[in-house]
Every structure is written in C-alpha cells, then in structure tokens.
C-alpha cells in the first residue's frame, strides 16, 4: 500500500516547477564553469601590441565576455515581453519552455565548439539564440508565476514567524532557495567534472554532456509533465522575488491610490546605481580570478562560483534575522553596505583566502534588489504593479548595456597599475546607491508619523 502512495507523491512532485528549477540550475552552473575555462584556454595565446602575455590574455577574455554579455542583455527584451503576453493570455508554459529550448541549444553550441574545435566566436551566435528564446528574464518570470499559482492567496499573504519559518515557507521562497542550493552544489562539482577526460574526449566534454542532458530533461519535463494550475482571473498572479516576499512591511501596507513619483524616482535611481555596481564587478570577476597571482584552476573556479551562490542562502537568512527590527529601507542599506565593504576588499585579492574573505563580507548582497521591488510595489496602485516592475527591468537592461563596456575598458586600462580598481569603483557606486534609499527611508518614516498623528 505504501508503494503506490509514494509513486503518486513522486509523480506529483515531478509535475511541479521545482524539479525543473533544480535541474536547470545544476546544468547552468556546469555550463558557466565550462565556458569560463574554454574561454581561458582559447585566449591563452592572444597577443596585443605593447602588452604583456598575461595582460593580453585578460584583454581577450574580457573582450569576449563584453560582447557575449551585451548580446545576452540586448536580445531577450522583445521576446521576453512577447512571452509575458502569451503567459497572461493563458499560455503559462510558454515563458518556461521557450527559454529552456534556448538554454539547451546554447549548451549544444559550446559542446560542438569543444568537440569540433570551432571558433570561440560561435558562442556569440549561441547566446543570441538563447536571448531570442526569451533568456533568463522570461524564464524566471515564468517560473515565479507558476510557483505562485501553486499556492493559495491566503498562503501567499502569510507573514512568516522566524521561529517557525520552516513550517510557513511559501512556495516561491522554496523555489529561490532550491535555485541557490542547486547553484551551490553544481558549482562545487563542476570543476571536478571538467577535469574528467579520456584520450578521445577533450577536457570539459563530459561536463558539457552532463549539462546538456540536464537541460534536455528539463525541456522534456516542462513539455510533458509540468502541470499548470488554473486560477480565476480575479485572483492576481504574483511573480516577485523571495526576499520581497519575506519583507514584513510590504505584506502589511495597502497599495496607494496614486503614484508616489518622488519615491519611485529615488528607488529607480538606487536600483540602477546598485545594479551598475554589482553587475560591473561580476562582469570583471570572471576574468580576474584567472589572472596571476590567483590563476585559478577549473576546480577553484567551481568553488568560487559556489561561494557566490552561497550568498542566496545568507541573504535569505539575513532577511529572516533582521526584518523583525528593520524597515525595508534599512534592510536595503544593510545589503548595500555588505556588498560595498566586501567588493572593496576584493580590490586587494592577491591570494585565494583574501578572495573568500571578501566574498564572506558580501553575505547580504542579494537583499537590496528584490526589496527595492517590494518598496516600489508600495508606491503605485495595484493596477500598475506589473508596469512599474517591467519599467524597472528595462531600465536595468539599459544600465547593463552601459556598465558592461565601461567596466571592461576601465579594467583593461588599469591592468598594469591596479587590476582591482574596478572593484573599488564598484564599491563607490554601491555607496552612492545608499543615498536615494536613505532619502526614501526618511520620507517613509515621516509619512508613517503623519498618518499616525492623523489617525489619533
């Protein structure tokens, strides 16, 4: 009697979005490590006039990632909007299935680059295909929409008590935690898998085969097994992030009747500045760890990526710890300060232990952006939630189109005298982002005090 029940439970689990998120993230972390090491190997013999061999390799790596990431940022804009429209019209699987197809094809492209020794520039076409399929923006919005449909409106509005949070974890929070844990595990094993090879298979082939198989399984599951719960039209879909859901004040504040323009502008400014800081640093970190004196191997690259995914867990725990005593604005400031201090120390990372020390100081760095989204939702009427969050996402995309080439060229220009200068610059942008958040916090405090006086 137990076996049929367990089979039904297992089958029901396979029809949910969570297994897809785990497998996709495992496959993606394997792919990212493989791409990083393939790019390093292909750029090893790059030469630039009047530049040392090591600096030439760094320039070649950063030039590749600059073009690669610009294509990744630019191509998904229109497809993601179209997929979102399809989702709103009832095609809930579309924002998941289409990007997963792009993921699978891009992994196949890199596998062919390794097996057939194709030019590295083939990956520009691969990321264009990935972007035209909707990219991460469409995929994650689709995932969070499906996750929200698996919980009732009452469940989605519960406020977690820190002493019993394991009993009241909302579905979307579980999805985010699984995403971070899968990234952590995948990164830890990716370097070891990269080292596996045979006389007939080059390094990275086995790693890419595993990654491709995982994405193929994700695509099949999303088409064949994934179940979409039907809801009434008057029940709104929710697709906000884990940390915004964990923010207690956002759950308790009613939507205003009109747009608070000043606060919206301040929050947009803070989000753009912080995204500029975090995105710019992440853009360079990929090449920085491959440069002397760090000169990381594939295994060390995997461990370093795992440290990055560990911030998902520490940021979540930070919200659970601080939200009882801190407002949304204070939570954001804590996260920004954490990143500013950690990335500043990254400027002086001349040994692996210094890198991990700097990473450990950024343990709350993921708190600001989703909490800013939560605060934005409190500044506009309910009917404008989707519009304001979409506008923010578009603004962040255009910010990426600015910081990717800017940080790349600054890094290349400072390789000789201070390679970590871009991280100091990133820290400065993070501090600047704290100014509009502080103003927003003061304005919100004054408003609450005024409302309290009016109520009395």
Write the SSE topology.
Layout lengths: L1 H13 L3 H25 L10 H22 L2 H12 L5 H23 L5 H11 L2 H15 L3 H4 L14 H25 L9 H20 L17 H4 L2 H5 L8 H28 L9 H25 L5 H19 L5 H10 L6 H10 L7 H29 L7 H35 L1
Helix pairs in contact: 2-5, 2-9, 2-10, 2-14, 3-6, 3-13, 3-18, 4-7, 5-6, 5-7, 5-10, 9-14, 13-17, 13-18, 13-19, 15-16, 15-17, 15-19
The proportion of strand residues reads: under 5%
Total number of strands:
0
**Main sheet attributes: strand count, strand direction, barrel closure:** none
What number of domains? 2
Helical proportion? over 70%
> What's the architecture of the largest domain, going by CATH?
Up-down Bundle
Sheet/helix structural class: mainly alpha
Q: Provide the CATH topology of the largest domain.
A: Growth Hormone, Chain: A
Report the span from N to C terminus.
62 Å
Low-confidence stretches: 152-170, 232-253
- Tally the helices: 19
Q: What is the N-to-C succession of helices and strands? A: HHHHHHHHHHHHHHHHHHH
| CATH class category of the largest domain | Mainly Alpha
Overall 3D form = globular
Radius of gyration: 22 Å
Mean pLDDT: 83
